[in-house]
Protein backbone atom coordinates (compact mmCIF):
# COMPACT_ATOMS: atom_id res chain seq x y z
CA UNK A 1 0.00 0.00 0.00
CA UNK A 2 1.58 3.33 -1.05
CA UNK A 3 2.60 5.69 1.71
CA UNK A 4 0.30 8.68 2.21
CA UNK A 5 1.72 11.95 0.92
CA UNK A 6 2.97 14.25 3.67
CA UNK A 7 1.37 17.66 4.25
CA UNK A 8 3.99 20.31 3.51
CA UNK A 9 3.88 23.78 5.08
CA UNK A 10 3.44 26.60 2.56
CA UNK A 11 4.32 30.29 2.98
CA UNK A 12 1.09 31.09 4.86
CA UNK A 13 1.60 28.12 7.16
CA UNK A 14 5.10 29.23 8.01
CA UNK A 15 3.93 32.79 8.69
CA UNK A 16 1.18 31.61 11.04
CA UNK A 17 3.58 29.22 12.77
CA UNK A 18 5.96 32.12 13.42
CA UNK A 19 3.28 34.46 14.83
CA UNK A 20 0.99 31.91 16.58
CA UNK A 21 2.49 28.42 16.86
CA UNK A 22 -0.64 26.90 18.45
CA UNK A 23 -2.89 28.21 15.69
CA UNK A 24 -0.36 26.90 13.19
CA UNK A 25 -0.58 23.39 14.68
CA UNK A 26 -4.40 23.47 14.47
CA UNK A 27 -4.19 24.62 10.86
CA UNK A 28 -1.83 21.78 9.92
CA UNK A 29 -4.06 19.26 11.73
CA UNK A 30 -7.10 20.52 9.79
CA UNK A 31 -5.19 20.27 6.50
CA UNK A 32 -4.22 16.69 7.36
CA UNK A 33 -7.85 15.75 8.03
CA UNK A 34 -8.87 17.38 4.75
CA UNK A 35 -6.24 15.38 2.90
CA UNK A 36 -7.42 12.10 4.40
CA UNK A 37 -11.12 12.72 3.72
CA UNK A 38 -10.37 13.56 0.10
CA UNK A 39 -9.67 9.85 -0.37
CA UNK A 40 -13.47 9.38 -0.03
CA UNK A 41 -15.39 11.96 -2.00
CA UNK A 42 -18.41 11.29 0.22
CA UNK A 43 -16.38 12.57 3.21
CA UNK A 44 -15.04 15.66 1.44
CA UNK A 45 -15.52 18.95 3.27
CA UNK A 46 -14.38 21.33 0.56
CA UNK A 47 -16.35 20.11 -2.47
CA UNK A 48 -19.11 22.52 -3.38
CA UNK A 49 -21.66 19.71 -3.81
CA UNK A 50 -21.04 18.53 -0.22
CA UNK A 51 -20.54 21.95 1.34
CA UNK A 52 -23.72 21.96 3.48
CA UNK A 53 -23.99 18.21 4.04
CA UNK A 54 -22.98 17.64 7.69
CA UNK A 55 -25.45 15.22 9.37
CA UNK A 56 -24.78 14.17 12.94
CA UNK A 57 -24.32 10.60 14.11
CA UNK A 58 -26.79 9.94 16.92
CA UNK A 59 -27.93 6.96 18.96
CA UNK A 60 -30.91 4.98 17.63
CA UNK A 61 -33.24 6.36 20.30
CA UNK A 62 -32.04 9.94 19.76
CA UNK A 63 -32.66 9.73 16.01
CA UNK A 64 -36.20 8.40 16.56
CA UNK A 65 -36.99 10.24 19.78
CA UNK A 66 -40.51 10.54 21.15
CA UNK A 67 -41.58 13.58 19.13
CA UNK A 68 -39.94 12.51 15.87
CA UNK A 69 -41.43 9.03 16.06
CA UNK A 70 -44.87 10.30 17.03
CA UNK A 71 -44.88 12.67 14.05
CA UNK A 72 -43.90 9.84 11.72
CA UNK A 73 -46.69 7.65 13.11
CA UNK A 74 -49.31 10.40 12.76
CA UNK A 75 -48.32 11.10 9.16
CA UNK A 76 -48.16 7.41 8.32
CA UNK A 77 -51.66 6.83 9.66
CA UNK A 78 -52.96 9.84 7.69
CA UNK A 79 -51.47 8.46 4.47
CA UNK A 80 -53.00 5.03 5.11
CA UNK A 81 -56.38 6.73 5.46
CA UNK A 82 -56.03 9.01 2.43
CA UNK A 83 -53.45 7.64 0.00
CA UNK A 84 -54.19 4.62 -2.20
CA UNK A 85 -50.53 3.58 -2.57
CA UNK A 86 -49.91 3.62 1.19
CA UNK A 87 -53.11 1.76 2.06
CA UNK A 88 -52.96 -0.69 -0.86
CA UNK A 89 -49.29 -1.59 -0.38
CA UNK A 90 -49.72 -2.37 3.32
CA UNK A 91 -52.87 -4.41 2.61
CA UNK A 92 -51.05 -6.33 -0.14
CA UNK A 93 -48.13 -7.05 2.18
CA UNK A 94 -50.51 -8.57 4.73
CA UNK A 95 -52.47 -10.51 2.10
CA UNK A 96 -49.40 -12.14 0.55
CA UNK A 97 -47.49 -12.64 3.83
CA UNK A 98 -50.37 -13.84 6.02
CA UNK A 99 -53.46 -14.21 3.84
CA UNK A 100 -56.34 -15.84 5.72
CA UNK A 101 -53.90 -16.86 8.45
CA UNK A 102 -50.87 -19.03 9.15
CA UNK A 103 -51.80 -22.58 10.19
CA UNK A 104 -49.58 -24.70 12.42
CA UNK A 105 -48.59 -28.20 11.27
CA UNK A 106 -47.23 -30.12 14.25
CA UNK A 107 -44.19 -32.34 13.69
CA UNK A 108 -42.85 -33.60 17.02
CA UNK A 109 -39.24 -34.75 16.80
CA UNK A 110 -39.80 -38.46 17.16
CA UNK A 111 -36.09 -39.29 17.36
CA UNK A 112 -35.63 -37.14 20.48
CA UNK A 113 -38.96 -38.15 22.02
CA UNK A 114 -38.58 -41.85 21.25
CA UNK A 115 -41.81 -42.05 19.24
CA UNK A 116 -42.76 -44.14 16.26
CA UNK A 117 -44.06 -42.50 13.09
CA UNK A 118 -47.65 -43.38 14.01
CA UNK A 119 -47.27 -42.09 17.58
CA UNK A 120 -45.73 -38.81 16.39
CA UNK A 121 -48.54 -38.35 13.87
CA UNK A 122 -51.19 -39.07 16.52
CA UNK A 123 -49.83 -36.63 19.11
CA UNK A 124 -49.21 -34.05 16.39
CA UNK A 125 -52.88 -34.21 15.44
CA UNK A 126 -53.83 -33.71 19.09
CA UNK A 127 -51.59 -30.65 19.37
CA UNK A 128 -53.07 -29.17 16.19
CA UNK A 129 -56.58 -29.82 17.51
CA UNK A 130 -55.90 -27.94 20.76
CA UNK A 131 -54.45 -24.99 18.88
CA UNK A 132 -57.52 -24.97 16.62
CA UNK A 133 -59.86 -24.85 19.64
CA UNK A 134 -58.07 -21.71 20.79
CA UNK A 135 -57.42 -20.12 17.39
CA UNK A 136 -60.69 -20.52 15.54
CA UNK A 137 -62.84 -18.84 18.18
CA UNK A 138 -63.09 -15.11 18.87
CA UNK A 139 -62.85 -16.08 22.56
CA UNK A 140 -59.07 -15.90 22.14
CA UNK A 141 -59.46 -12.12 21.68
CA UNK A 142 -59.97 -10.25 24.94
CA UNK A 143 -62.41 -8.03 23.01
CA UNK A 144 -64.21 -11.07 21.50
CA UNK A 145 -63.87 -9.55 18.03
CA UNK A 146 -61.18 -11.39 16.02
CA UNK A 147 -59.87 -14.93 16.03
CA UNK A 148 -56.19 -15.86 16.16
CA UNK A 149 -55.73 -15.84 12.37
CA UNK A 150 -57.35 -12.43 12.00
CA UNK A 151 -55.16 -11.15 14.83
CA UNK A 152 -52.10 -12.11 12.78
CA UNK A 153 -53.19 -9.75 10.02
CA UNK A 154 -54.07 -6.97 12.42
CA UNK A 155 -50.69 -7.21 14.13
CA UNK A 156 -48.65 -7.20 10.92
CA UNK A 157 -50.71 -4.28 9.58
CA UNK A 158 -49.92 -2.23 12.70
CA UNK A 159 -46.23 -3.04 12.38
CA UNK A 160 -46.28 -1.60 8.86
CA UNK A 161 -48.48 1.38 9.67
CA UNK A 162 -47.12 2.51 13.04
CA UNK A 163 -43.74 0.80 13.19
CA UNK A 164 -44.87 -1.65 15.84
CA UNK A 165 -47.48 -2.64 18.40
CA UNK A 166 -47.82 -4.73 21.55
CA UNK A 167 -49.60 -8.00 22.29
CA UNK A 168 -50.53 -8.56 25.93
CA UNK A 169 -51.28 -12.17 26.96
CA UNK A 170 -53.44 -12.05 30.12
CA UNK A 171 -55.34 -14.98 31.64
CA UNK A 172 -59.12 -14.60 31.73
CA UNK A 173 -61.33 -17.70 32.01
CA UNK A 174 -64.83 -17.11 30.68
CA UNK A 175 -67.62 -19.08 29.05
CA UNK A 176 -67.19 -22.71 28.03
CA UNK A 177 -63.90 -22.19 26.22
CA UNK A 178 -61.27 -24.40 27.91
CA UNK A 179 -58.49 -21.83 27.51
CA UNK A 180 -58.01 -18.76 29.68
CA UNK A 181 -55.20 -17.32 27.56
CA UNK A 182 -56.31 -14.11 25.85
CA UNK A 183 -54.81 -11.84 23.20
CA UNK A 184 -54.95 -8.07 23.67
CA UNK A 185 -53.50 -5.91 20.90
CA UNK A 186 -52.24 -2.53 22.12
CA UNK A 187 -51.56 0.31 19.70
CA UNK A 188 -48.12 1.91 19.77
CA UNK A 189 -49.36 5.32 20.93
CA UNK A 190 -50.40 3.92 24.31
CA UNK A 191 -46.83 2.85 25.10
CA UNK A 192 -45.19 5.79 26.90
CA UNK A 193 -43.47 6.61 30.18
CA UNK A 194 -45.66 6.64 33.28
CA UNK A 195 -46.92 10.16 34.03
CA UNK A 196 -45.11 11.27 30.85
CA UNK A 197 -41.77 11.19 32.66
CA UNK A 198 -38.60 12.03 30.75
CA UNK A 199 -36.53 9.24 29.23
CA UNK A 200 -33.61 7.84 31.18
CA UNK A 201 -30.92 5.20 30.73
CA UNK A 202 -33.34 2.45 31.84
CA UNK A 203 -36.69 3.89 30.67
CA UNK A 204 -37.13 4.84 27.01
CA UNK A 205 -40.50 5.75 25.50
CA UNK A 206 -42.45 3.40 27.75
CA UNK A 207 -39.99 0.49 27.72
CA UNK A 208 -38.23 -0.22 31.02
CA UNK A 209 -34.90 -2.07 30.69
CA UNK A 210 -32.32 -3.74 32.86
CA UNK A 211 -28.59 -2.96 32.86
CA UNK A 212 -28.13 -5.13 29.77
CA UNK A 213 -30.79 -3.33 27.75
CA UNK A 214 -33.31 -6.21 27.96
CA UNK A 215 -36.96 -5.14 28.49
CA UNK A 216 -38.34 -5.86 31.96
CA UNK A 217 -41.59 -3.84 32.04
CA UNK A 218 -43.84 -1.91 29.68
CA UNK A 219 -45.71 1.26 30.68
CA UNK A 220 -49.17 1.17 29.08
CA UNK A 221 -51.45 4.20 29.26
CA UNK A 222 -55.08 3.35 30.00
CA UNK A 223 -56.42 5.66 27.28
CA UNK A 224 -55.29 6.72 23.82
CA UNK A 225 -53.29 10.00 23.80
CA UNK A 226 -55.59 13.01 23.33
CA UNK A 227 -58.58 10.68 23.44
CA UNK A 228 -62.03 12.25 23.71
CA UNK A 229 -63.10 9.42 25.99
CA UNK A 230 -63.87 10.71 29.44
CA UNK A 231 -61.92 8.94 32.13
CA UNK A 232 -58.91 9.11 34.39
CA UNK A 233 -55.58 8.61 32.66
CA UNK A 234 -53.37 6.11 34.45
CA UNK A 235 -50.61 3.68 33.57
CA UNK A 236 -50.32 -0.07 33.97
CA UNK A 237 -46.78 -1.37 34.36
CA UNK A 238 -46.85 -4.84 32.78
CA UNK A 239 -43.94 -7.29 33.29
CA UNK A 240 -42.31 -8.61 30.14
CA UNK A 241 -42.39 -12.23 31.41
CA UNK A 242 -44.77 -14.34 33.48
CA UNK A 243 -43.85 -16.30 36.58
CA UNK A 244 -43.44 -19.44 34.43
CA UNK A 245 -40.83 -17.59 32.29
CA UNK A 246 -43.17 -17.46 29.27
CA UNK A 247 -43.59 -14.13 27.53
CA UNK A 248 -46.29 -11.94 29.04
CA UNK A 249 -46.20 -9.12 26.52
CA UNK A 250 -44.90 -9.22 22.95
CA UNK A 251 -43.25 -6.13 21.47
CA UNK A 252 -43.50 -6.36 17.68
CA UNK A 253 -41.01 -4.16 15.84
CA UNK A 254 -37.93 -4.45 13.64
CA UNK A 255 -34.80 -2.98 15.28
CA UNK A 256 -32.68 -1.71 12.41
CA UNK A 257 -29.86 -0.70 14.76
CA UNK A 258 -28.45 -2.35 17.89
CA UNK A 259 -29.94 -0.82 21.02
CA UNK A 260 -33.00 0.55 19.23
CA UNK A 261 -35.96 0.54 21.62
CA UNK A 262 -38.92 1.18 19.32
CA UNK A 263 -39.69 0.87 15.63
CA UNK A 264 -40.59 3.44 12.98
CA UNK A 265 -43.32 3.17 10.32
CA UNK A 266 -42.75 1.25 7.10
CA UNK A 267 -43.66 4.39 5.12
CA UNK A 268 -41.10 6.64 6.87
CA UNK A 269 -38.60 6.90 3.95
CA UNK A 270 -41.27 7.93 1.44
CA UNK A 271 -43.74 9.97 3.51
CA UNK A 272 -42.72 13.19 1.75
CA UNK A 273 -43.01 11.54 -1.67
CA UNK A 274 -46.48 10.16 -1.02
CA UNK A 275 -47.79 13.38 0.50
CA UNK A 276 -46.46 15.47 -2.40
CA UNK A 277 -47.84 13.07 -5.01
CA UNK A 278 -51.24 13.18 -3.27
CA UNK A 279 -51.29 16.96 -3.73
CA UNK A 280 -50.02 16.76 -7.32
CA UNK A 281 -52.64 14.23 -8.37
CA UNK A 282 -55.43 16.28 -6.80
CA UNK A 283 -54.20 19.46 -8.52
CA UNK A 284 -54.01 17.65 -11.88
CA UNK A 285 -57.48 16.15 -11.39
CA UNK A 286 -58.95 19.56 -10.50
CA UNK A 287 -57.31 21.06 -13.58
CA UNK A 288 -58.78 18.33 -15.80
CA UNK A 289 -62.26 18.95 -14.36
CA UNK A 290 -61.96 22.69 -14.99
CA UNK A 291 -60.64 22.17 -18.51
CA UNK A 292 -63.51 19.79 -19.30
CA UNK A 293 -65.69 22.88 -19.52
CA UNK A 294 -64.87 25.15 -22.45
CA UNK A 295 -63.76 28.47 -21.03
CA UNK A 296 -65.42 31.31 -22.95
CA UNK A 297 -64.16 34.88 -23.28
CA UNK A 298 -66.48 37.58 -24.66
CA UNK A 299 -64.69 40.22 -26.72
CA UNK A 300 -66.62 43.49 -27.06
CA UNK A 301 -66.01 46.85 -28.72
CA UNK A 302 -65.90 49.77 -26.35
CA UNK A 303 -66.42 47.50 -23.33
CA UNK A 304 -70.18 47.63 -23.79
CA UNK A 305 -70.66 44.22 -22.12
CA UNK A 306 -72.77 41.22 -23.07
CA UNK A 307 -76.49 41.52 -23.61
CA UNK A 308 -77.48 38.99 -20.95
CA UNK A 309 -81.16 39.69 -21.55
CA UNK A 310 -80.91 37.98 -24.95
CA UNK A 311 -78.83 34.88 -24.01
CA UNK A 312 -80.86 31.86 -25.03
CA UNK A 313 -80.84 28.35 -23.53
CA UNK A 314 -78.87 29.42 -20.48
CA UNK A 315 -78.61 26.60 -17.95
CA UNK A 316 -78.74 26.97 -14.19
CA UNK A 317 -79.78 30.63 -14.24
CA UNK A 318 -82.04 32.27 -11.68
CA UNK A 319 -84.76 34.77 -12.64
CA UNK A 320 -82.64 37.76 -11.61
CA UNK A 321 -79.24 36.22 -12.40
CA UNK A 322 -77.11 38.15 -14.89
CA UNK A 323 -74.22 35.63 -14.83
CA UNK A 324 -73.51 33.66 -18.01
CA UNK A 325 -73.72 29.88 -17.54
CA UNK A 326 -72.80 27.61 -20.41
CA UNK A 327 -74.25 24.20 -21.12
CA UNK A 328 -74.65 21.70 -23.95
CA UNK A 329 -75.80 23.24 -27.28
CA UNK A 330 -76.13 26.77 -25.85
CA UNK A 331 -76.99 29.43 -28.45
CA UNK A 332 -75.55 32.87 -27.83
CA UNK A 333 -77.24 36.02 -29.14
CA UNK A 334 -74.48 38.64 -28.97
CA UNK A 335 -74.51 42.36 -29.71
CA UNK A 336 -72.92 43.65 -32.89
CA UNK A 337 -69.15 43.69 -32.42
CA UNK A 338 -69.19 41.00 -29.70
CA UNK A 339 -67.32 37.75 -30.33
CA UNK A 340 -67.13 34.53 -28.28
CA UNK A 341 -63.62 33.05 -28.04
CA UNK A 342 -63.23 29.57 -26.51
CA UNK A 343 -60.08 28.58 -24.59
CA UNK A 344 -58.00 25.62 -25.70
CA UNK A 345 -57.94 22.74 -23.14
CA UNK A 346 -54.42 21.82 -21.99
CA UNK A 347 -55.29 18.83 -19.83
CA UNK A 348 -54.46 16.06 -19.29
CA UNK A 349 -50.75 16.84 -19.21
CA UNK A 350 -49.05 14.37 -21.57
CA UNK A 351 -45.88 14.22 -19.44
CA UNK A 352 -47.61 13.76 -16.08
CA UNK A 353 -47.86 9.95 -16.25
CA UNK A 354 -44.20 9.48 -17.17
CA UNK A 355 -43.22 11.76 -14.28
CA UNK A 356 -45.39 9.78 -11.85
CA UNK A 357 -43.99 6.48 -13.12
CA UNK A 358 -40.45 7.63 -12.33
CA UNK A 359 -41.64 8.57 -8.84
CA UNK A 360 -43.30 5.17 -8.43
CA UNK A 361 -39.99 3.47 -9.26
CA UNK A 362 -38.23 5.27 -6.41
CA UNK A 363 -41.15 4.75 -4.02
CA UNK A 364 -41.08 1.04 -4.85
CA UNK A 365 -37.40 0.85 -3.91
CA UNK A 366 -38.16 2.50 -0.56
CA UNK A 367 -40.96 -0.01 0.11
CA UNK A 368 -39.11 -3.10 -1.23
CA UNK A 369 -41.79 -3.42 -3.89
CA UNK A 370 -41.22 -3.59 -7.66
CA UNK A 371 -43.23 -0.75 -9.20
CA UNK A 372 -45.35 -3.10 -11.33
CA UNK A 373 -46.28 -5.12 -8.23
CA UNK A 374 -46.96 -2.04 -6.12
CA UNK A 375 -49.16 -0.46 -8.81
CA UNK A 376 -50.60 -3.87 -9.89
CA UNK A 377 -49.67 -3.03 -13.48
CA UNK A 378 -49.07 -6.44 -15.05
CA UNK A 379 -48.42 -5.56 -18.69
CA UNK A 380 -44.84 -6.80 -19.00
CA UNK A 381 -43.29 -9.98 -20.36
CA UNK A 382 -43.38 -13.32 -18.54
CA UNK A 383 -39.67 -13.05 -17.67
CA UNK A 384 -40.06 -9.56 -16.23
CA UNK A 385 -43.18 -10.47 -14.27
CA UNK A 386 -41.56 -13.64 -12.92
CA UNK A 387 -38.48 -11.70 -11.81
CA UNK A 388 -40.67 -9.11 -10.06
CA UNK A 389 -42.71 -11.78 -8.24
CA UNK A 390 -39.60 -13.68 -7.15
CA UNK A 391 -38.06 -10.45 -5.89
CA UNK A 392 -41.05 -9.31 -3.84
CA UNK A 393 -41.80 -12.87 -2.63
CA UNK A 394 -38.55 -12.83 -0.65
CA UNK A 395 -39.83 -9.72 1.14
CA UNK A 396 -43.17 -11.38 1.90
CA UNK A 397 -41.45 -14.50 3.23
CA UNK A 398 -39.25 -12.37 5.47
CA UNK A 399 -42.32 -10.66 6.94
CA UNK A 400 -44.07 -14.00 7.33
CA UNK A 401 -41.11 -15.41 9.26
CA UNK A 402 -41.01 -12.27 11.42
CA UNK A 403 -44.73 -12.68 12.24
CA UNK A 404 -44.18 -16.33 13.11
CA UNK A 405 -41.28 -15.64 15.45
CA UNK A 406 -42.69 -12.47 16.99
CA UNK A 407 -46.38 -13.38 17.30
CA UNK A 408 -47.32 -16.99 16.46
CA UNK A 409 -44.61 -18.97 18.25
CA UNK A 410 -44.82 -17.26 21.68
CA UNK A 411 -48.61 -17.59 21.68
CA UNK A 412 -48.41 -21.24 20.59
CA UNK A 413 -46.04 -22.00 23.45
CA UNK A 414 -48.45 -20.36 25.91
CA UNK A 415 -51.36 -22.41 24.53
CA UNK A 416 -49.55 -25.76 24.76
CA UNK A 417 -48.22 -24.90 28.22
CA UNK A 418 -51.77 -24.27 29.44
CA UNK A 419 -52.97 -27.48 27.75
CA UNK A 420 -50.28 -29.54 29.51
CA UNK A 421 -50.87 -27.92 32.90
CA UNK A 422 -54.63 -28.44 32.62
CA UNK A 423 -54.14 -32.08 31.56
CA UNK A 424 -55.64 -31.71 28.09
CA UNK A 425 -52.33 -32.84 26.55
CA UNK A 426 -49.95 -35.51 27.86
CA UNK A 427 -46.44 -34.43 26.82
CA UNK A 428 -43.84 -36.07 29.11
CA UNK A 429 -40.96 -33.76 30.05
CA UNK A 430 -42.59 -30.65 28.58
CA UNK A 431 -42.63 -28.69 31.85
CA UNK A 432 -39.15 -29.65 33.09
CA UNK A 433 -36.82 -30.21 30.15
CA UNK A 434 -36.31 -27.42 27.63
CA UNK A 435 -34.89 -29.90 25.09
CA UNK A 436 -38.02 -32.05 25.25
CA UNK A 437 -40.26 -28.95 25.20
CA UNK A 438 -38.68 -27.80 21.94
CA UNK A 439 -39.11 -31.31 20.51
CA UNK A 440 -42.83 -31.35 21.37
CA UNK A 441 -43.34 -27.82 19.99
CA UNK A 442 -41.58 -28.52 16.70
CA UNK A 443 -43.62 -27.90 13.57
CA UNK A 444 -44.19 -25.56 10.66
CA UNK A 445 -46.46 -22.59 10.05
CA UNK A 446 -48.03 -22.78 6.60
CA UNK A 447 -49.36 -19.73 4.77
CA UNK A 448 -50.62 -18.79 1.31
CA UNK A 449 -48.51 -19.89 -1.64
CA UNK A 450 -46.76 -17.61 -4.10
CA UNK A 451 -49.07 -18.57 -6.93
CA UNK A 452 -48.17 -19.27 -10.53
CA UNK A 453 -47.72 -17.13 -13.61
CA UNK A 454 -47.28 -20.01 -16.07
CA UNK A 455 -48.51 -23.20 -14.33
CA UNK A 456 -47.25 -25.60 -17.02
CA UNK A 457 -43.68 -24.31 -16.90
CA UNK A 458 -43.57 -24.07 -13.13
CA UNK A 459 -45.11 -27.51 -12.52
CA UNK A 460 -42.70 -29.07 -15.00
CA UNK A 461 -39.78 -27.48 -13.15
CA UNK A 462 -41.23 -28.64 -9.80
CA UNK A 463 -41.61 -32.21 -11.08
CA UNK A 464 -37.98 -32.23 -12.24
CA UNK A 465 -36.85 -30.93 -8.84
CA UNK A 466 -38.82 -33.72 -7.16
CA UNK A 467 -37.47 -36.44 -9.48
CA UNK A 468 -33.86 -35.35 -9.06
CA UNK A 469 -34.19 -35.01 -5.28
CA UNK A 470 -33.68 -31.23 -5.10
CA UNK A 471 -37.04 -30.85 -3.33
CA UNK A 472 -39.57 -33.17 -1.72
CA UNK A 473 -43.19 -33.53 -2.78
CA UNK A 474 -44.19 -32.07 0.58
CA UNK A 475 -42.10 -28.92 0.00
CA UNK A 476 -43.50 -28.46 -3.50
CA UNK A 477 -47.09 -28.88 -2.28
CA UNK A 478 -46.60 -26.23 0.40
CA UNK A 479 -44.73 -23.78 -1.86
CA UNK A 480 -47.02 -23.93 -4.90
CA UNK A 481 -50.43 -24.63 -3.39
CA UNK A 482 -50.01 -24.02 0.33
CA UNK A 483 -51.52 -27.43 1.14
CA UNK A 484 -50.47 -30.50 3.09
CA UNK A 485 -48.96 -33.36 1.04
CA UNK A 486 -49.82 -36.07 3.57
CA UNK A 487 -53.46 -34.98 3.70
CA UNK A 488 -53.55 -34.84 -0.09
CA UNK A 489 -52.20 -38.40 -0.43
CA UNK A 490 -54.71 -39.76 2.09
CA UNK A 491 -57.56 -37.98 0.31
CA UNK A 492 -56.28 -39.08 -3.10
CA UNK A 493 -56.15 -42.70 -1.95
CA UNK A 494 -59.75 -42.44 -0.79
CA UNK A 495 -60.87 -40.87 -4.08
CA UNK A 496 -59.08 -43.51 -6.18
CA UNK A 497 -60.82 -46.25 -4.24
CA UNK A 498 -64.21 -44.57 -4.77
CA UNK A 499 -63.60 -44.22 -8.52
CA UNK A 500 -62.37 -47.82 -8.79
CA UNK A 501 -65.46 -49.13 -7.01
CA UNK A 502 -67.66 -47.08 -9.34
CA UNK A 503 -65.80 -48.22 -12.46
CA UNK A 504 -64.72 -44.67 -13.28
CA UNK A 505 -61.40 -43.75 -14.94
CA UNK A 506 -58.82 -42.83 -12.35
CA UNK A 507 -57.02 -40.23 -14.41
CA UNK A 508 -53.94 -39.71 -16.44
CA UNK A 509 -50.55 -40.84 -15.18
CA UNK A 510 -48.19 -37.85 -14.90
CA UNK A 511 -45.74 -37.68 -17.79
CA UNK A 512 -42.16 -38.58 -16.85
CA UNK A 513 -39.75 -35.70 -16.39
CA UNK A 514 -37.48 -35.01 -19.36
CA UNK A 515 -34.10 -36.74 -19.21
CA UNK A 516 -31.05 -34.62 -18.38
CA UNK A 517 -29.08 -33.29 -21.39
CA UNK A 518 -27.02 -36.00 -23.12
CA UNK A 519 -23.27 -35.55 -23.49
CA UNK A 520 -22.61 -35.47 -27.28
CA UNK A 521 -19.45 -37.49 -26.69
CA UNK A 522 -21.33 -40.24 -24.82
CA UNK A 523 -23.47 -42.98 -26.43
CA UNK A 524 -26.79 -44.23 -24.99
CA UNK A 525 -25.09 -47.25 -23.34
CA UNK A 526 -22.56 -45.07 -21.53
CA UNK A 527 -19.62 -45.92 -23.77
CA UNK A 528 -17.74 -43.27 -25.76
CA UNK A 529 -19.56 -42.45 -29.01
CA UNK A 530 -17.86 -43.43 -32.27
CA UNK A 531 -15.36 -40.78 -33.28
CA UNK A 532 -15.31 -39.21 -29.80
CA UNK A 533 -11.89 -38.27 -28.45
CA UNK A 534 -10.37 -40.92 -26.21
Main beta sheet: 4 strands, antiparallel
Based on helices, strands and strand pairing, what is the structural class? alpha+beta
SSE order in H/E notation?
Answer: HHHHHEHHHEEEEEEEHEEHHHHEHHH
Number of strands: 11
Distance between the termini: 50 Å
Average pLDDT: 83
- In spatial order, strands of the major sheet run 4-5-6-7
Radius of gyration: 35 Å
Number of helices: 16
Q: What overall geometry do the principal axes of the alpha carbons give?
A: globular
Can you tell me the residue ranges where pLDDT is under 50 for at least 5 consecutive residues? Answer: 1-5, 310-315
Helix content: 40-55%
How many domains make up the coordinates? 4
Beta-strand residue percentage: 5-15%
Provide a compact summary of the structure:
The protein is α+β, with helices and mostly antiparallel strands and 534 residues long. 42% of the residues lie in helices and 8% in strands. The chain is globular and about 95 Å long.
Kindly describe this structure.
It is a single chain. The chain folds into four domains: 11-54, no CATH class; 59-291 and 369-448, no CATH class; 296-342, no CATH class; 449-514, no CATH class. Helices cover 42% and strands 8% of the residues. It contains 16 helices and eleven strands. The chain has a four-stranded antiparallel beta sheet with strand order 4-5-6-7, with no helix packed on it. A hairpin with a 5-residue loop joins strand 5 and strand 6. The chain is globular and about 95 Å long. Residues 1-5 and 310-315 have low confidence and may be disordered.
Amino acid sequence: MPEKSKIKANFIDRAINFVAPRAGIERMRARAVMAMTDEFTGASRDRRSMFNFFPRSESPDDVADKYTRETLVERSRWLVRNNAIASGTIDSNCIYSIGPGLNFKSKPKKEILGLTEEQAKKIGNEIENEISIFAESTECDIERTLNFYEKQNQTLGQIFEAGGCLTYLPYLKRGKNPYGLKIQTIEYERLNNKDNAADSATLVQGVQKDENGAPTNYHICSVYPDSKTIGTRNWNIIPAYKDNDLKNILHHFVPRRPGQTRGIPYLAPIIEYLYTITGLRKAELDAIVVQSFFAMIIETEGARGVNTKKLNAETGAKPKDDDIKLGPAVILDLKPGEKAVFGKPERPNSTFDSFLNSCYQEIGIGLNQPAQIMMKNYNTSYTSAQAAFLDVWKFYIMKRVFTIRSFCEPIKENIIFEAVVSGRLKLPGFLNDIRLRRAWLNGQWVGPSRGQIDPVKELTAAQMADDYGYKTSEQITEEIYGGDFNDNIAQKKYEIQLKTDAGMPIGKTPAPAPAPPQDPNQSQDGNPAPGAPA
